[in-house]
């Protein structure tokens, strides 16, 4: 670690808090008009590149890693834009679960079901620890599964990213979870599982 990195690593907590608060403000500003363009993603990446405390915090590290992965090819496609908007909205709402009486538990299928990957249709929602959603999709398709970008009656399995916030009820991706749970309650055979269960079910 260089001298400059060491000095930044031992900065007082208020420096980290200030950077995180600034990051929250930037994310809210980016989301304010309901769209997210590549220039805004590149600005956020550049900002995080220069903010040690924000980029090594748990929340900042996830955003930083996703931005670097999504922009590695020089293009932020439509699916990545939607995924990034969900992630930033999730980050700015992280405390809302503590300010409401809404449930924070996930309606997962219990006991954990056997997943038959080949021929099954998968829908993804939330933030994945494995990486950007397209990497998860590639794993599913390599194992013979199909990917559906939106939840519908054709979906067999809804997979929730392991980094799903307790405030999922407030988040954009909460609508997919609610739709899947409602469909299941109405008798449709749809499984709701966590990311970790999916990857435990994929072939070696």
Q: Which descriptors would you attach to this protein?
A:
Rossmann fold, single chain, 204 residues, 2 domains, 4-stranded parallel β-sheet, 49% helix, disordered N terminus, alpha/beta
What would you note in describing this structure?
The protein has 204 residues and is an alpha/beta fold. The protein has 2 domains: 3-92, no CATH class; 121-201, Rossmann fold (3-Layer(aba) Sandwich). Helix content is 49%, strand content 7%. It is built from 9 helices and 4 strands, in the order H-H-H-H-H-H-E-H-E-E-H-E-H. It has helices at 3-9, 13-31, 38-49, 52-56, 58-70, 78-92, 133-142, 174-185, 195-201, and strands at residues 121-125, 146-147, 157-160, 191-194. It has a 4-stranded parallel beta sheet with strand order 2-1-3-4, with helices on both faces. Helix 2 packs across helix 6, helix 3 (38-49) packs across helix 5 (58-70) and helix 5 (58-70) runs antiparallel to helix 6 (78-92). The longest helix is centred in the first third of the chain and has 19 residues, at 13-31. The chain is elongated, with a radius of gyration of 18 Å. Residues 112-204 form the BRCT domain. This is NAD-dependent DNA ligase. Keywords: Ligase.
């Amino acid at each position: 670690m260089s001298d400059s990195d060491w000095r930044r690593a031992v900065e007082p907590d208020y420096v980290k808090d200030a950077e995180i608060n600034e990051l929250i403000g930037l994310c809210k500003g980016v989301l304010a008009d309901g769209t997210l363009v590549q220039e805004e993603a590149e600005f956020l990446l550049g900002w995080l590149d220069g903010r040690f405390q924000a980029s090594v915090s748990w929340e900042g590290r996830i955003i930083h890693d996703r931005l670097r992965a999504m922009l590695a090819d020089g293009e932020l496609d439509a699916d990545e834009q939607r995924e990034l908007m969900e992630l930033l909205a999730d980050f700015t709402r992280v405390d809302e679960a503590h300010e409401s009486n809404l449930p924070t538990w996930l309606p997962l299928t219990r006991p954990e079901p056997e997943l038959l990957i080949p021929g099954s249709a998968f829908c993804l929602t939330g933030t994945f620890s494995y990486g950007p959603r397209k990497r998860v999709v590639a794993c599913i398709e390599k194992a013979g599964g199909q990917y559906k970008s939106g939840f519908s009656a054709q979906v067999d399995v809804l997979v929730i990213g392991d980094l799903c916030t307790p405030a999922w009820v407030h988040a954009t991706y909460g609508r997919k979870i609610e739709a899947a749970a409602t469909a299941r309650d109405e008798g449709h055979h749809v499984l709701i599982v966590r990311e970790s269960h999916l990857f435990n079910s994929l072939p070696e």
